[in-house]
Write a structure and sequence with these properties.
Blueprint lengths: L1 H15 L8 E4 L12 H13 L8 E4 L10 E6 L7 H12 L3 E6 L4 H11 L6 E2 L29 E7 L2 E8 L3 H5 L2 H4 L3 H20 L3
């Protein structure tokens, strides 16, 4: 485990200083939910981070199965969808080991994910509960300050957007953006026809999340 931790920390350090190209990934999971949603989201966010943060991320995102040992290749993993999520026991164990070793999971509710992901993440960290992060949390205060937390990109049920976290041993290992739909805001403008101001807010918040993931160890 200590070698995995060291490997992840090296990847994160190189990415944060733009010294080597690092790839981020989308999480593939079972259960029938559309894990593959928002195909243009991560490439657009990557381009934004490279331009605005001076990062050196691979232009295309990867896809990694939740139960795959390849999960350790990616310091940031993005999870989205509208529907069912099922983690097997081995999936949950693999994801837990990855997160404990220094990995970071961003769960982005694309509307309808909430009731499933809360149950499945209990398999990963049965001892933890999602807690709402205060607006003063560093994830909202990277290059782009968000004084009132997550931006509201799509209405969904009209609830306020909320950012939740799983905190293990004092470290934020998973960030859950709820009732915000950041990924839709990252997509090409002609897909959802969101105003450019909304897209920019979504991209800036996404850049904050990437920045936090890559610099929280420094």
């Amino acid at each position: 485990m200590k070698y995995i931790v060291l490997f992840l920390l090296i990847i994160i350090s190189l990415a944060s200083f733009g010294q080597a190209k690092v790839q981020i990934a989308k999480l593939k999971y079972d259960g029938g939910g559309d894990w593959y949603s928002n195909k243009t989201a991560l490439p657009n966010l990557i381009e934004f981070c490279n331009l605005q943060l001076g990062m050196n991320l691979e232009e295309e995102d990867a896809v990694v199965d939740v139960g795959s040992p390849d999960i350790y290749l990616y310091p940031y993993i993005y999870m989205t969808g509208h529907g069912n999520v099922v983690f097997s026991n081995s999936d949950a164990e693999n994801l837990r080991k990855y997160l404990v070793a220094g990995g970071f999971l961003h769960i982005d509710d694309n509307y309808g994910l909430d009731q499933f992901i809360r149950l499945e993440m209990k398999k990963v960290f049965p001892e933890l509960e999602f807690v709402e992060l205060p607006f003063e949390h560093p994830i909202y205060n990277q290059k782009f300050p968000f004084l009132y937390g997550l931006p509201k990109v799509h209405e969904h049920d009209g609830k306020p957007s909320q950012g939740f976290g799983l905190i293990y041993d004092g470290r934020l290992v998973a960030f859950y953006s709820y009732e915000s739909d950041l990924g839709n805001g990252w997509e090409d403008q002609n897909i959802h026809n969101d105003p450019e101001s909304k897209r920019q807010q979504a991209l800036k918040m996404g850049a904050n999340i990437i920045s936090y993931c890559f610099t929280q160890y420094q």
